[in-house]
């Protein structure tokens, strides 16, 4: 369930991107902007690579092995945006602001998932402690429940079954939580990158080529929406309107859809987490906490007759 706690890290990436946008918008040179923000290890690594003569986008990509897995798509998206802007000579600050908004939106969605998890996780932890409570209760009554659990055949069967059920519950919980996490941390990225490219003033075909090359270089070649971008550019040609605004509106729609999908997953996650609790954890409590006590009671009763 660690991924639900990764939202603050994603929010930290968003803050870095926002600060870069503000500094660049104020006229600070890119190399100096990174140096001013070089407090985190990731930004410091990028700054060191830039001062060593590496282009900014390549410096970001080179730092990815040191970045947490859940942060990498966000950093790759930043590298791609920087690469496109440098390639076509487009202003980067406005697009970085939009990218920071997207990251914050997904961070909020992850926080909503964490909130949805808090109650069922606390319940599961409480129930997982009940077998130990059952064993202590048996000891307080004078029954050797621990001995029954580890030294008798019925107790060993209960122990194996209880451990199996608990491990199944943990694996099931992890799978449910992983399925509820946002899959795309850069929704609408191809639309946003194409908007950056067309603001550089070049031909539309050149903009599309630049975006595809940036995504390939930054490890995001699988990012979709190619057909959607082509449709928007075709609409721009036919209607005679600037393509950048159309592309940014599509990017915003993709971000809204990703946020709504994440919120929908969070709303049903708490209910789904009750399944492993009822089907695995509670039966584990019965076989680990209650069954040894009953076996001990029956054994002592039979031996005392």
Can you put this structure into words, describing what you see?
The chain has 305 residues and is an all-alpha fold. It has one domain. It has 13 helices and no strands. It has helices at 7-25, 30-36, 41-51, 56-62, 72-88, 93-140, 145-151, 153-180, 189-199, 204-217, 226-239, 243-272, 274-304.
Number of strands: 0
Series of H and E elements: HHHHHHHHHHHHH
Mean pLDDT score: 80
Structurally, how many domains make up the residues? 1
Radius of gyration: 27 Å
Distance between the termini: 51 Å
Helix content: over 70%
Overall shape: it is elongated
Notable characteristics:
disordered N terminus; single chain; mainly alpha; 305 residues
């Amino acid at each position: 369930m660690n991924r639900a706690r990764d939202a603050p890290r994603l929010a930290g990436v968003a803050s870095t991107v926002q600060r870069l946008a503000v500094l660049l918008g104020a006229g600070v040179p890119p190399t100096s902007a990174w140096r001013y923000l070089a407090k985190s290890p990731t930004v410091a690594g990028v700054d060191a690579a830039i001062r060593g003569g590496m282009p900014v986008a390549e410096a970001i990509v080179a730092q990815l092995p040191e970045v947490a897995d859940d942060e990498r798509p966000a950093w790759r998206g930043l590298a791609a945006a920087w690469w496109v802007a440098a390639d076509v000579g487009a202003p980067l600050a406005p697009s970085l602001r939009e990218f920071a908004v997207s990251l914050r939106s997904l961070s909020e969605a992850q926080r909503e998932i964490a909130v949805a998890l808090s109650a069922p996780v606390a319940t599961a932890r409480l129930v997982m402690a009940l077998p130990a409570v059952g064993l202590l209760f048996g000891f307080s009554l004078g029954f050797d429940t621990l001995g029954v659990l580890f030294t008798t055949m019925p107790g060993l069967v209960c122990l194996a079954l209880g451990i199996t059920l608990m491990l199944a519950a943990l694996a099931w919980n992890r799978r449910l939580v992983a399925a509820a996490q946002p899959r795309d941390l850069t929704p609408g990225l191809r639309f946003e990158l194409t908007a950056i490219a067309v603001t550089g003033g070049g031909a539309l075909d050149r903009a599309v080529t630049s975006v595809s090359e940036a995504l390939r270089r930054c490890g995001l070649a699988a990012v979709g929406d190619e057909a959607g971008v082509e449709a928007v550019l075709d609409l721009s040609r036919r209607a005679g309107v600037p393509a950048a605004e159309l592309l940014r509106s599509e990017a915003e729609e993709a971000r809204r859809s990703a946020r709504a999908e994440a919120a929908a997953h969070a709303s049903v996650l708490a209910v789904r987490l009750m399944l492993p609790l009822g089907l695995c954890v509670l039966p584990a409590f019965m076989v680990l906490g209650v069954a040894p006590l009953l076996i001990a009671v029956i054994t002592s009763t039979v031996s005392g007759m």
